[in-house]
Design goal:
single chain; 396 residues; alpha/beta; FAD/NAD(P)-binding domain; 2 domains; five-stranded parallel sheet; 25 strands; 25% helix
């Protein structure tokens, strides 16, 4: 957004509570790699230029990429500055920070959709002897106890952590909720290539039937590795992981799991087939069938005949729970009446329901790719154009 504003000669500052790429530096586990390939790491006027386009950046590489971008565009970042309040003023907004206050006609909320880990209230009923962690607190398996681990959540973060913990020799149980299943490689090409080329990632927020529902779709079951392996629930159960349904509650030390595991997995399987059907149809229309591998369909998710509906958390079988249950934005500092009853910003494609206020970096903000690094550029350009129009009207 800073680059797009600079291109339009709009004076601005970027307030950062830590340093550039702060969250990636301080709140990610050691082995994390992006689930998008390096060639997809592109920002306005800047892109990956290394010799590993089909590999996946480690956290340290992504930090270097973002830092280099900030330097390349001379972004006016004011670091170590925590925003404490944003409130309406006569001509825009007053932004209070721990380093002083700012007056601004417009404000862009770019603090992201992952401000704090979401841990359900049932965590309070878990026996005290069990250690509980969020993905932001987890770093590596060696910091866990040697006992069993319950990973709650089966989207990208959940399955990546489950796989790593399982490889360390610890017994893993996965509480499975709604998830998106995708193959890493399809018909010889990365699934991100297919979704990019077929226009799936460019679908706009005003083109889908239910944007509220679309914004709640979890991150896909993907992992970025040099050998480009597919990581799904079958991979994990083949290695010995145990699947249970959604973590529904705790009663007198007994974890209770939903009986919907089979249906949840069947729905994920069905949606994967529908996406692959769409890709196959596009490939045929684009004349690619002779250039790529033949279509294929993947094994349905294998579920035990009678998945467990309960687990005694006092038995010692589980020593640690990792809550891979998603994230929520943190707008505790925003003193502008733009939040709905669930604490989300009311906006129309990033144009917030308050004059001169904008949102960027949120899931499916303007396009399906909005939450990916390469999705930021198009969104920022659109919103910067709107911002310029707002300022022209305000100053005319």
């Amino acid at each position: 957004m800073s680059r797009c504003l600079a291109d339009r000669s709009i004076d601005h500052v970027v307030l950062e509570r830590g340093e550039v790429a702060n969250t990636w530096k301080t709140e990610r586990w050691d082995s994390l790699r992006l689930l998008t390939p390096n060639w997809q790491c592109r920002l306005p006027g800047y892109a990956y230029s290394g010799d590993r386009p089909d590999d996946f950046m480690a956290v340290s590489e992504l930090v270097a990429f973002i830092e280099a971008y900030a330097e390349e565009i001379s972004a006016p970042v004011i670091s170590q500055t925590t925003v404490e309040s944003v409130r309406p003023a006569q001509t825009g907004y007053t932004v209070e920070t721990d380093q002083g206050s700012w007056a601004a006609r417009t404000v862009v909320l770019a603090n992201g959709a992952f401000g704090k880990a979401h841990v359900p209230a049932i965590a309070d009923s878990v026996p005290e002897a069990i250690r509980q962690l969020t993905p932001g607190e987890y770093r590596k398996p060696s910091e866990l106890g040697t006992g069993g681990v319950l990973v709650v959540g089966a989207s990208a973060t959940g399955i990546q952590l489950a796989a790593e913990i399982q490889r360390s020799g610890r017994a893993v149980t996965i509480a499975v909720g709604e998830h998106v299943r995708l193959p890493r490689i399809y018909r010889g090409r990365d699934i991100q290539w297919w979704m990019d080329a077929a226009g799936v990632l460019d679908e706009r927020y005003d083109e889908v039937d239910d944007i509220v529902r679309a914004r709640k779709v979890p991150s896909p079951q993907l992992v970025g590795t040099s050998d480009r392996v597919t990581l799904d629930l079958n991979t994990l159960t083949d290695r010995g992981a145990k699947l249970v349904g959604r973590f529904a509650g705790v009663n007198d030390g007994n974890a209770q799991f939903s009986g919907s595991l089979r249906n949840v997995c069947a729905l994920a399987d069905l949606k994967q087939v529908r996406l692959l059907d769409r890709i196959d149809e596009w490939a045929s229309e684009a004349g690619l069938d002779s250039e790529v591998d033949a279509p294929e369909r993947f094994r349905e998710t294998v579920i035990d005949d009678a998945p467990s509906l309960g687990l005694d958390l006092n038995s010692g079988e589980i020593e640690t729970i990792v809550w891979a249950t998603g994230f929520r934005p943190d707008y505790s500092w925003l003193d502008v009446p733009v939040l709905d009853r669930k604490g989300h910003i009311r906006h129309d494609g990033g144009v917030v329901d308050a004059p001169g206020m904008y949102l960027i970096g949120s899931t499916f903000l303007r396009r399906r790719k909005s939450s990916f690094i390469h999705g930021a550029g198009d969104d920022a350009s659109d919103l910067a154009d709107h911002l310029v129009g707002f300022l022209d009207d305000a100053l005319s």
